[in-house]
Design brief:
The protein has about 675 residues and is α+β, with helices and mostly antiparallel strands. The protein has 14 helices and 30 strands.
Length: about 675
């Protein structure tokens, strides 16, 4: 398997070498933008780093999103089998080891490449779920650095030299050195030595550097949840001093800033993806997770608000033909009506007129008695077709929308009609002009003949996955899936399985074995589409905290020698979870720590030891710190906090306050999970 990071100016292809270490090949994309035109960039990139014999690949996608379909098509055209497409910020988090089981924190990924500075806030959950909360992009990349440096070098470059290309070459050659001299070619191709020192470079890019730091500070101030780690990625962040500049920001002085091979952070993170088989990526804040429809999570619903343009959600839909024009109430009669085009010799089609102009009761008004309420009698007596069957109406096989739009726009006749006017309520005052998509009342016509029955609705697919085309009902067979498993995430389950060949959707049914464990329905039946499953890294199901029986069956068009059936799995109930959070306050007698324990379900809390440890690293056992308090075993009621105050010793530097079971086997034997609300809150000073 290979990992591909396709950027605007450079591409990286990584694979695990024979020694077990990542091996990365970097290729410049001269004249091609890898993000905007992957169809051309990907073959050029694979020419210098061909894929393996299996052709499997993991692809990175920019933080701003978009272009995934085009990237997949380019990979298919290059002969690759795409295992997964992962956002670049998530890959950076994997590179730095910021995603691990039991880790709960928020990180800010600063990725500054050739064109933009992308600042992405990630919320990492203990169950290997990464929430991409938001991304803020600033047009502040390496191209802007090169333009500023080229302006400073104006007059020092030979005639005919490309200023941007020369500036980029000198900037990359400078690296961490104090000065560098590189040959720059003139129009005739003759080399001319040009020297660039550190002072000149820093002076040229100082305004851009200040803008970048201001953007980082703004994101740290507005981040929700609060950031505890900053991760650097991109070629510009490989410059010396970048980490120290961010650490010097007032809002980042207590944060951890990491910078290790930032130019290869994305591709190395993609290679590390094989260690996270159940990694799930969700767009939006953890607080906006899909929990409203308890037990009925639909994977192909509308995208979350965090990635949806609000204007497209609130804008009215585009004008379409009205399939049921008589359902609109009539407007007030025009006191000065104009002659209706239907009163001239050019009458519309008889069948069409019989459908749109004839009254069901023959009195000339749209609804017979002048009522604003439409006639809901069955189709076949001159009434419109039932609502919801667009394009079908009694006696008319054409769509009424275009005729309804064109008829009001017809010019009024310049001479009186040749035929004498008819008498009746609608003959003296013709109906008013109607807006588009509304029916046009006119003089009464002869009673319509019996209209034919409306055509039947198009047949639907036999299965709820929506496959098939109108007029054709494909036959799908239910077969078992392989390797069915479920990972519990509080009141949600991440369901995983191996798809049979040819299956594009699967039916997931579940039943709660403990009906008293929370509210919501006791069973459910939903459909998961394969593409959504592969994009999300599994199927998320809200089923509560009790025991659940899962049944999954894949839908295939051909059995292919397999037997129909389904796969089942019994998921045990979630053990009680006790969360604790320490806080420190200064008093006259010194610092006092308050540790609060809470549990959503009542449980018997085992004996605990509160350990205080010094240093930058969190302790992993009682032997790595000092036991400042022992909490005896006791009953912890549901929803009732238990508060303990601890006197902290006078120390300097960072310190931690962590709880461990008094008996090493107590937590395992009791089936109770004891965890902090957030790991970064354990650092009390």
């Amino acid at each position: 398997m290979i990992a591909i990071d396709l950027g605007h100016r450079f591409g990286h292809v990584g694979r695990i070498g024979p020694d077990g270490l990542p091996d990365v090949v970097t290729t410049g994309l001269d004249g091609t933008d890898g993000v905007l035109d992957p169809q051309r960039a990907l073959p050029a990139l694979l020419g210098s780093a061909p894929p393996g014999p299996d052709g499997r690949a993991v692809l990175g996608i920019p933080a701003t999103g978009g272009g995934e379909d085009e990237l997949r098509r380019a990979a298919d055209g290059a002969g690759l089998v795409v295992d997964r497409v992962l956002p670049d910020p998530v890959a950076v988090a994997l590179h730095y080891g910021a995603v691990a089981e039991g880790v709960d924190h928020a990180v800010l990924v600063c990725d500054q490449g050739a064109t933009t500075l992308d600042l992405t806030l990630l919320a990492v959950s203990p169950d290997l779920t990464v929430h991409v909360v938001r991304t803020h992009s600033v047009r502040l990349g390496g191209d802007d650095w090169d333009a500023a440096l080229a302006a400073r070098l104006a007059g020092r470059l030979p005639d005919g030299a490309d200023p941007r290309r020369a500036a980029e070459m000198l900037r990359r050659a400078l690296g961490a050195a104090d000065s560098v001299t590189e040959p720059v070619l003139d129009t005739a191709g003759a080399p001319h030595p040009v020297t660039l020192d550190r002072a000149t470079f820093e002076e040229a890019v100082a305004p851009l550097r200040e803008r970048a730091l201001a953007a980082v500070a703004e994101q740290l101030a507005d981040a929700e949840p609060a950031v505890d780690t900053v991760l650097l990625a991109g070629g510009l962040n490989a410059a010396p001093g970048r980490r120290a500049e961010i650490e010097a920001l007032p809002l980042a002085r207590d944060l951890t800033v990491r910078c290790y091979m930032p130019e290869l952070a994305v591709v190395r993170g993609l290679l590390a993806l094989h260690d996270f088989g159940v990694l799930r990526v969700v767009t939006g804040s953890p607080r906006s997770a899909a929990r409203a429809d308890f037990g009925h999570f639909r994977p192909d619903t509308a995208p979350p608000a965090a990635v949806t343009d609000p204007d497209t959600r609130t804008a009215p839909p585009a004008a379409v033909a009205d399939p049921d024009p008589l359902t609109w109430p009539p407007e007030p009669d025009d006191p000065e009506p104009e002659p209706h085009p239907a009163s001239t010799g050019a009458a519309p089609d008889a069948a069409d007129a019989g459908h749109r102009n004839a009254s069901p009761r023959g009195d000339g008004s749209p609804y017979g008695d002048g009522s604003a309420r439409p006639d809901t009698s069955p189709a076949g007596n001159g009434s419109p077709a039932p609502h919801g069957e667009p394009g079908s109406a009694p006696g008319n096989t054409s769509e009424p929308g275009p005729s309804a739009r064109q008829q009001p726009a017809a010019p009024p006749p310049e001479s009186p009609p040749d035929t004498p006017p008819t008498t009746g309520p609608a003959a003296t005052i013709p109906g008013p002009r109607q807006p588009p998509d509304l029916s046009q009342p006119s003089a009464p016509a002869a009673p319509p003949a019996a209209a034919p029955e409306p055509p039947p609705p198009p047949p639907h697919s036999a299965h709820p996955d929506g496959t098939g085309t109108p007029g054709e009902a494909p036959s799908l067979f239910a077969v078992p899936v392989g390797e069915l498993q479920a990972v519990r995430r509080d009141d949600h389950l991440l369901v995983l399985w191996a798809w049979p060949e040819g299956a594009l959707s699967a039916r997931v049914r579940w039943r709660r074995e403990d009906g008293s464990a929370g509210g919501g329905p006791k069973n459910g039946d939903v459909v998961c589409r394969r593409r959504v499953y592969e994009h999300d890294g599994g199927f998320d199901l809200a089923v509560g905290r009790g025991a659940v029986t899962l049944t999954v069956e894949a839908l295939v068009p051909d059995l292919g020698g397999e037997c129909e059936g389904a796969s089942s799995l019994l998921v045990p109930a979630q053990p009680p979870v006790v969360e604790y959070e320490p806080t420190v306050r200064r008093r006259l007698k010194g610092r006092v720590a308050t540790v609060t324990f809470t549990s959503e379900t009542g449980c018997d809390l085992p004996g605990l030891r509160i350990v205080h440890s010094l240093g930058r690293f969190r302790p992993t056992s009682t032997a790595e710190g000092t036991v400042v308090h022992e909490l005896p075993a006791q009953r912890l009621p549901a929803g009732t906090p238990l508060t303990v105050e601890v006197q902290l010793p006078a120390t300097r530097g960072p310190s931690w306050l962590v709880c461990f079971p008094a008996d090493a086997n107590a937590g395992t034997d009791s089936g109770i999970e004891i965890r902090p609300t957030a790991l970064h809150r354990l650092r009390v000073t």
